[in-house]
Design goal:
- It is a single chain.
- The protein has helices at about 1-55, 60-70, 135-140, 150-155, 180-190, 200-210, 215-225, and strands at about 75-80, 105-110, 115, 120-125, 130, 145, 195, 215.
- With about 230 residues, the protein is mainly alpha-helical.
- A two-stranded antiparallel sheet has the order 1-2. It has a two-stranded antiparallel ribbon with strand order 3-8. Strands 4-5 form a two-stranded antiparallel sheet.
- It is globular.
Length: about 230
């Protein structure tokens, strides 16, 4: 009788432990995994939402944005010095051909201002070509950095030419009376800094252009929320 009772107790205890093991063995991992995933997903979602919110809060009248673009954009841009070695004879194994069939170009020109170059100055010695950008020479006239007030004043003072892209605007109608668009451009480029350096401006424009050598109207208008 004692053996039987003891056996029953042990069997009951074992069953209880197995039951607890079933609960603690599966439920916690599911709980932890769920919480961990949920928290991580939530944080990523919050960051993405915050980034989208910041982008959405920047809104600029396209006409005001094109006034800036027409001041900063240029008809000429230097791209890749090595591309100047191409013979442009449609060689099948040409290393300068693009996937779409075009060529990598050393430089390009346009009839109307098309690009805001991301560099301040560039020189291709082998080709005997050199280019100092308009924004570099006309904004950073006294040194490598400008305040927001200096940036706005100098951008507004730059000459305007109807650019390629955006709503058409004649030079006679391109005077800037509202400084808010230029101030917004400074904030986009300088971030939270009180001053914008020549180096940072070029670097930030490179980011906005997705790694290209210059900002086109499509890239510029997107950065300013000019839709």
């Amino acid at each position: 009788m004692k053996y039987t009772l003891r056996t029953a107790i042990l069997v009951g205890a074992a069953a209880c432990c197995a039951s607890i093991a079933n609960v603690s063995g599966f439920a916690p991992p599911i709980f932890v995994s769920h919480c961990g995933t949920s928290t991580t997903t939530s944080l990523r979602s919050d960051v993405a939402t915050a980034a989208e919110t910041d982008a959405d809060t920047i809104q600029t009248d396209p006409k005001e944005a094109v006034k800036l673009f027409g001041r900063l954009a240029e008809k000429y841009i230097m791209l890749d010095a090595s591309a100047g070695l191409c013979c442009y004879s449609a060689c099948s194994d040409c290393e300068y051909r693009e996937p779409g069939g075009g060529y990598r170009m050393a430089d390009q020109s346009s009839a109307r201002p098309k690009w805001i170059p991301c560099y301040d100055k560039r020189e291709f010695e082998s080709m005997g070509k050199e280019h100092t950008t308009k924004w570099s020479s006309e904004i950073f006239v006294d040194g490598p950095a400008v305040t927001k007030g200096e940036f706005v004043e100098r951008v507004i003072g730059m000459g305007f030419a109807p650019p390629l892209g955006g709503p058409y605007m004649a030079a006679s109608a391109a005077a800037i009376e509202d400084e808010s668009a230029a101030a917004t451009l400074f904030d986009v480029l300088a971030g939270e800094k009180e001053k914008l350096t020549r180096h940072r401006m070029g670097k930030e424009m490179k980011v906005l252009s997705n790694g290209e050598e210059g900002l086109t109207w499509a890239m510029f208008s997107e950065a300013l929320g000019a839709k």
